[in-house]
Amino acid sequence: PSIPRNTNRLINEKSPYLLQHAHNPVDWYPWGQEAFDKAKKENKLIFLSVGYSTCHWCHVMEEESFKNKEIGEIMNKNFVCIKVDREERPDVDKVYMTFVQATSGGGGWPMSVWLTPDLKPFVGGTYFPPEDGVHRVGFRTVLLRIAEQWKESKDALLESSQKILEALLHRSEIRVRGQESPPPSKEVMATCFQQLSNSYDEDYGGFSKSPKFPTPVNLNFLFTYWAVHRTTPEGARALQMALHTLKMMAHGGIHDHIGQGFHRYSTDKHWHVPHFEKMLYDQGQLAATYSRAFQISGDEFFADVAQDILLYVSRDLRDQVGGFYSAEDADSYPTTASREKREGAFCVWAAEEIRALLPHPVEGATEGTTLGDVFMYHYGVKETGNVSPMQDPHQELKGKNVLIVRCSLELTAARFGLELGQLGALLWEGRRRLSAVRAQRPRPHLDTKMLAAWNGLMISGFAQAGAALAEQKYVSLAAQAAAFLQRHLFDPTSGRLLRSCYRGKDNMVEQSAVPIQGFLEDYVFVIQALFDLYEASLEQGWLEWALQLQHMQDKLFWDPKGFAYFSSEAGDPSLLLRLKDDQDGAEPTANSVTVTNLLRAACYSGHTEWVEKAGQILAAFSERLQKIPITLPEMARATAVFHHTLKQVVICGDPQGEDTKEMLRCVHSVFSPNKVLMLADGDSAGFLYRQLPFLASLERKDGKATAYLCSNFACSLPITSPQELRGMLCP
To answer: Which domain, by its residues, includes 705?
Structure first.
């Protein structure tokens, strides 16, 4: 690589996204006091650019504008320019995205916002092309116009920015009005089910036309809806919608059939042509969702997909000391000699490549059939490429194929006169050969930042899959990742989580000079992970840490006036708003997940004020839950858990005993959204016995492992047969 001409302050940052911009001719600053002071001192506007390292249009805007010397000069002369990685600072991103969405009707990344020297936004947008076009104003023009406005009518700008801020404060407030109680679960669940059912794609699954995102929150809602309405036609439809969607996604091009894992979303309704980046938060949630699908249906297909996701993460996204990296990019160099990256280059195939790799004749098939013929038929490969020009505006995928399962195994087998078992082996061999060739291609950029929140989601994925599929290796990977969090993303002296750490030189884990403190989502997803890990491993240390973190979360983020939790803590003067997110999207929102966390925490500790807090959150979001619960499916799901009261499933037994293990396997094999599992091992000095005195009164019947189902600390008769326990867990 050539020696860079320019270097700016971002060279001292740890975020891979900020480092990507360290050699732009723009005099970038990171978000912080140095930039704010400069803007005030020189009375300059701030240009804030927010993105993330796997964002395709962020790369485009950098190539076109931020690497352009003349545009760089205009930026440096008129503005203090600040670059933010939204994954490091979701709080900053959220404040200004709220503004952009309110003023332009849309949002997304890269986000471009102009602020007054006291950080108030007054103009914003997303991607700007460098020069004026027929339909769009170019970035250069926008920069010059805004600089001119600031010179000519500064006071009017300041006044309008103040008005905008007041309107935003009013718009974004989520609070309890009067003496509201939680909304009725039955109605919320029914409305959410109806809204999902109405937007469901009967043919291909999913809940929108295109683009299509995996949105596990929708599928988890449907599983819980089914569990509460198993015997009704609506319950059956909920389950069918969820399982069909999961099947279609797994067959689609959004699923990487050669390298495993899932891409971020599909650009079409068939789940065929994706945006190729892979995000950790998707892998974590989908591993858990596919494991639940297996628990419910008993269909090995879903277990295989969960294992495929976990293979990808443990191989490609796992740091050697146990934490998980954030993402893999969509763009990469097609060959080692290429000068220019292309989207999807790492993952797509020309038909002649596959033919050349799989020329072997297939025994027992119709005359002259090669492995390539079978493989191409099954995965929808076409000689001229299988991507429609509509899905490929930049012609990056011309003549290429995105693999998608076009036929069932039965149909492919029938087409070539093969046995099913033989076909499975042939396809496996084809994938293995393609995988070996793909490994020689230049890899996409890896974002090696490690975030507490996303690691939490991934630990839940490993722990839940480990329990549901009875795979100890997954539970131990979850435990190693939790130990990683405790070592690198937790400050034991203050008891607080940190947001991020980084892979540094010689693969050592590094921290930034001023570590970023954890946000609400970091606490919530880590606490959820620790509860999931306790249920899978029964190691009480994880439980103890989860409850400590829950107390800290209450202290830092709870809103005692309006109820629910703020996304960020008080006391940061550079944050204009303390917001509460109100949408379960690609990730669930923290307030939604925390409702179930609080109910679980109460079951493990006996602190009933946590149940009260859970109800207060539902009350704060009551209006939205009753009108448009489809925007909060995870919180709608939590209303059912709140309403039906969690059942404590207590197993009294020796953790090493076969009878105890059999009881635990039975609990893990059943999908029951309102159960909390605990092991009473007879150690009265242990953490659980100290928290829950009622455990001391439960004993093993006839010396055998015994289960009790307890609700509000009152317990059922003892159960010693796993079959009987299964019956109790599946009413």
So the answer is: 648-729
